[in-house]
Structure prediction request, 224 residues.
Amino acid sequence: DVKVTQSSRYLVKRTGEKVFLECVQDMDHENMFWYRQDPGLGLRLIYFSYDVKMKEKGDIPEGYSVSREKKERFSLILESASTNQTSMYLCASRWGGNTGELFFGEGSRLTVL
Amino acid sequence: GENVEQHPSTLSVQEGDSAVIKCTYSDSASNYFPWYKQELGKRPQLIIDIRSNVGEKKDQRIAVTLNKTAKHFSLHITETQPEDSAVYFCAASGSGYALNFGKGTSLLVTP
Prediction:
């Protein structure tokens, strides 16, 4: 079974703090993704990576950055957290190419006060 | 990037009825169209997908149809059951690696 593990299920941070969300997959997948999920807005793509050290912006990259130093790990960084970044963050991975199943982690619910 | 519109946002059906969810996409280069189901408090999971060289695909009670000319695709669930209640997301993958999702449809199947 594919396992996508997100380091924290629940986080509470203060405005202006730097936040790291970690995601690790164990299936040697090339592609990894970060989405945020908000009620009524669905799943919005923040960043994705199709190879180690490669990254591309999704639809809402502002206020976020990512790091992929190793194939199995994809980190989402909020340089200076703001209240409008309070959300559920979902990491996903899949094999290479632009088709095929996305395997999601359980999500990280971030609250910024 | 790819823009995926999904309708309706909520859908309520009686057990045993059919449910249809529709999506449109903007990028004519899109070639992969999956559907995900997310039960309350759980992660989204793939239930069916279709590629651009196929017009229809079926898996037991669920089917997906694709109209490339009109740039729309639909999910059909027949003989709905209470356990079909969930949020359903359509998605489209264009020429790059990104997978863009619709806003979701909350399906409620009442006994």
About this structure: Chain A has a mean pLDDT of 95.
